[in-house]
Amino acid sequence: DWTPKSFVEESVAELKEKLGNDRVVLGLSGGVDSSVAAMLLHKAIGENLYCIFVNNGLLRKNEFSEVLEQYKGMGLNVKGVDASARFLDALAGLSDPEEKRKAIGGIFIEVFDDEAHEISDVKWLAQGTIYPDIIESVSATGGPSVTIKSHHNVGGLPDFMKLKIVEPLKALFKDEVRRVGASMDMDKELLGRHPFPGPGLAIRILGDITAEKVRILQEVDAVFIGNLRKWNLYDSVWQAGAILLPVNSVGVMGDERTYEKCVALRAVESTDGMTADWVNLPYEFLQKTSNEIINKVKGVNRVVYDISSKPPATIEWE
Ligand code: XMP
């Protein structure tokens, strides 16, 4: 019988056997899958697991520093690499969604490859791949899988991709991954995190990306997600986020006319991301959240709620 506990015991034994004293590198994303994979490997090989957590500057507000501290608190051998400026530079002037994804994937590979070279004698690349990632062509669960593929076609393989691959979660579904994490006493909030795309806020800022737009969207998103938690709605939503629209609209503040940004809020119910329904959030929640965003976030004067389901709309706008 499959139980999370027996899975942990068996996997740890197998990983010990397979990896011996080898060094392993793993990219942490802040998401559930890479975090649980790291914890399993940590149990098996301890300090021989080298984790790299890259800040692409497109994460949620304060996420990089908070999650990095959390990883350290879990005892992981983790290095945080703040490469925000490199990503923002590479994105400057790009508006096309696929070009943005490619730029982000390309820089991620460069940064990760540089960091992997810093670890002497590394033999394995560990990944938090789960079963649905293998059967779907596009990862719904984070990671640069898509963009790595397009990069292949351009240059040769980066060195870290020539490493042997170890994927301890590749037979599991998301809910099983969460249960495995829980049986290792991992933090509930970390295990319950919504999926978040690898390219992060870059595909929620429609059009070109600037540091100021990232700041605005991080503030808006923090109000929205914070309120979902406050109202106990977070766990009943599969995924939620805010989108910065490439339009300004007219508003009034006091006697003044304003001409500022418009943001869309999106919250969906889903089981696998392949189909999704918009969530019927309480009107009072939407009302309070909209007021709070407009009052607190400088540069935004209008909030709309996305009531489109997938298909035909997608979860992300880009
Ligand atoms: P869509 O927008 O296609 O999204 O309905 C389905 C799920 O996939 C996520 N998503 C991505 N994840 N890289 C990722 O790692 C991407 O480029 C990407 N695009 C969409 C999206 O957040 C949702 O969970």
Features:
318 residues, alpha/beta, Rossmann fold, GMP Synthetase, Chain A, domain 3, 2 domains, 5-stranded parallel β-sheet, 4-stranded mixed β-sheet, 11 helices, 42% helix, 20% strand, binds xanthosine-5'-monophosphate
Chart the SSEs and their pairings.
Blueprint: H1 4-19, E1 23-28, H2 32-45, E2 49-55, H3 63-73, E3 78-82, H4 84-91, H5 97-118, E4 122-126, H6 131-135, H7 145-154, E5 164-166, H8 174-183, H9 188-191, H10 211-230, E6 239-253, E7 256-269, E8 277-278, H11 283-296, E9 300-305
Parallel strand pairs: 1-2, 1-4, 2-3, 4-5, 7-9
Antiparallel strand pairs: 6-7, 7-8
The protein binds xanthosine-5'-monophosphate.
Can you put this structure into words, describing what you see?
It is a single chain. The protein is α/β, with parallel strands linked by helices and 318 residues long. It folds into 2 domains: 4-191, Rossmann fold (3-Layer(aba) Sandwich); 204-305, GMP Synthetase, Chain A, domain 3. 42% of the residues lie in helices and 20% in strands. The strands form 2 sheets. Strands 3-2-1-4-5 form a 5-stranded parallel sheet, sandwiched between helices. α1 (4-19) crosses α2, α5 (97-118) crosses α7 and α10 packs antiparallel against α11. The chain is globular and about 70 Å long. The chain starts with a helix and ends in a 13-residue tail after the last strand. Mean pLDDT is 93; it is low at 138-154. Bound molecules: xanthosine-5'-monophosphate. One of its GO terms (molecular function) is ATP binding. Pathway: Purine metabolism; GMP biosynthesis; GMP from XMP (L-Gln route): step 1/1. It is an enzyme of class 6 (ligase).
